Amino acid sequence: MDTDILIVGAGPTGLMLANQLTRRGIRNVIIDRHAGPSRETRALGVQARTLEIYEKLGIVYRALELGKRGTGANLWAEGKRKGRVPLGDAGRMISPYPFILVLGQDDNERLMGEKLTELGGAVQWNTELTAIEQRDDGVVATLKNPDGSTRAFEAAWVAGCDGARSAVRELNRIEFPGAPYEHIFFVADVVMTGTMVPDEVNVYLWRSGFHLFFPMRGDDHWRIVGILPPALRGKDGVGFDDIVPSLRGEAGTTLEFRSCSWISTYRIHHRAAAHFRAGRCFVLGDAAHVHSPVGAQGMNTGLQDAYNLAWKLALVAAGKADAALLDSYEAERLPVAQRLLNSTDRGFKMIVSDNPVAGLMRTQVIARIASFAMSLKRVQLAAFLTVSQTGINYRTSALAFSLDRMPAAAPQAGDRFPWLKLKRRPGGAAEDLFQALDDTRFHLLAFGQSAPREGLPMLGDLLGIHAIPDDPINDAELARAKIPSPSFYLLRPDGHVGLCGSSLDEGAIARYLADRLHLR
Ligand SMILES: Cc1cc2nc3c(=O)[nH]c(=O)nc-3n(C[C@H](O)[C@H](O)[C@H](O)COP(=O)(O)OP(=O)(O)OC[C@H]3O[C@@H](n4cnc5c(N)ncnc54)[C@H](O)[C@@H]3O)c2cc1C
Fold it and tell me: Residue ranges of the alpha helices (H) in 252-326?
């Protein structure tokens, strides 16, 4: 076997997977058919859940330094500012990162690439997967080398992080049902001034469409995303100058454009793979799902796919779990992709419809309703949990199990365990639990009861045990998160609750690890 895991594609999804496997000491090889990293900014909204994972990877501070925090979105209709949606306040108690970080995909890829180098990994550029043969004990991949020659390469598992036209998906004949949207998008990086509220997202709704202005790093630097005006739809080689009249017509004549460093047009599709696994091959990121950029979810969803698969592949590749554990990747991530497709599709249709009534709705009604709804704390919280991806749960997964019925408001099996500041030792200081818990291991948290001193034989040093002491600060945090006492939570490496219950029962935990996680 040449490696344990062959990762095809060094976009954000592949780089995340390579980092997660490498830091767990799992042999992997990452290839990409391009000559080097992409220079295009493409996606630029980094969500809170991604930043939490970046923190574990040690790249969050650099990301925060390079990016701009989007703290609010301003809604404009027919040249008038109709309202402002705060992006930060609602998430203040949910995540250490209660905002969208505006940071281009190229910067995200660079940070993950640098981290991979630091960990001892490297992308093999100019190397393309052209064929796959699945065997019982592994996969034989045909790789095209930089000089055009080919070689057979054996891996135990193949992760297809190879984008919307995924060779891994196609070679495994996994269907990719869905359809293209009729509209053509454009995206442009521009230096300009105008009515936009600085450092915030500005959404201009108009009768025939919309334009989004994202603040970028650098003075007066904006990323503009919109749909091409109908008159330009059939035109080849659309340049920024072609778009300027419609921008001025809608966002105001005060717009002053100084330069445009990048413009691209693209047609978007909404599709999800029928399966995320075929034997020893997996698809992740755009290879598994593509959808409209509404809500800035695309890149983030691929990164979460990789984070979900990595710890499972690591356990299986290290011989600590049976391959059956890997079935949970599709079971957990395919429903997330399908829900995302449905919600972005609804949102997208509403904001791009050419129908005159829809145009009127967009400019007269949507902006007002959205501003009003988003002034309600309850709506703000629901929106934050959805957009930030911190609200994603795997409650229906076979890996989620509750020994007892937990109170409805308490964290449930399958949920991302909440962000808390707790004292882990009597008399110690309150610590940020996300920072304190190493995500290459499982963690058992015991509240209002003692925890096993000797650890659990099946997990050995893969388990951290934390008996949380009674303390006024802890009590207040647990009350806020509605965590009952006594209770216990067994967290998976990705921070989701695997098993929970009232009274800690070592026998039941051992059965959970053997039967549901397939640990050996
Ligand atoms: C113009 C544009 C604007 C966008 N804007 C946004 C946005 O604002 N917000 C958002 O969330 N998303 C946006 N997206 C989507 C976002 O870019 C993707 O969701 C993201 O790139 C997915 O990452 P990925 O790693 O899964 O796939 P990709 O980034 O597509 O990476 C796949 C990699 O696989 C390599 N590869 C492909 N086939 C092979 C092969 N056979 N062998 C070896 N290597 C191979 C490719 O060279 C590529 O490097 C945009 C996309 C485009 C095109």
Answer: 298-317
Ligand 1 center to residue 185 CA distance, Å? Answer: 16
Minimum-distance ligand 1 atom for the alpha carbon of 290: 19
Q: Which atom from ligand 1 is nearest to the alpha carbon of 127?
A: 43
Distance 37 CA to ligand 1 centre (A): 11
> Which of 16, 38, 127, 162 has most ligand 1 atoms within 8 Å of its beta carbon, as the pocket-test mutant?
162
List Cβ neighbours of 507 (8 Å cut-off, separation of 6 or more).
none
Distance between CA 308 and CA 21 in Å, rounded?
11
Mean pLDDT of the chain: 90
Would you say 360 and 205 are in contact if contact means Cβ atoms under 8 Å apart?
A: no
Closest CA to 313 of 21, 53, 116: 21
Contact 488, 445 (CB under 8 A): yes
Residue nearest to atom 37 of ligand 1 (CA): 162
- Rounded CA-CA distance 160/172 in Å is 10
| pLDDT tens digits for range 338-359 | 988 887 777 666 666 666 666 6
Strand ranges (E), 343-496? 401-402, 421-423, 430-432, 442-447, 463-468, 487-491
β-sheet bridge partners, residue 276: none
Nearest by Cα to 79 from 255, 224, 243: 255
Cβ of 11 closer than 6 Å to ligand 1, yes or no, is: yes
Q: Tell me which residue has its CA closest to atom 35 in ligand 1.
A: 9
Give the C-alpha separation, 100 to 114, whole Å: 23
Q: Which residues of 165-179 are buried (b: 16+ CB within 10 A; e: fewer)?
A: ebbbbebbebebeee
Instruction: Decide whether any atom of ligand 1 lies within 6 Å of the 75 Cβ.
Output: no
Pocket test for ligand 1, best of 16, 32, 130, 222 (most atoms within 8 A of CB): 32
- Residues 122 and 19 sit within 8 Å (Cβ to Cβ): no
Please write the tens of the pLDDT for every residue from 393-441. Answer: 999 999 999 999 999 999 999 999 999 999 999 989 999 999 999 999 9
105 lines ligand 1 (CB under 6 A): yes
Q: Is 42 in the pocket of ligand 1 (CB under 6 A)?
A: yes
Over residues 224-279, the pLDDT tens digits come to: 988 888 788 778 888 899 988 888 877 776 889 999 998 988 888 889 999 999 99
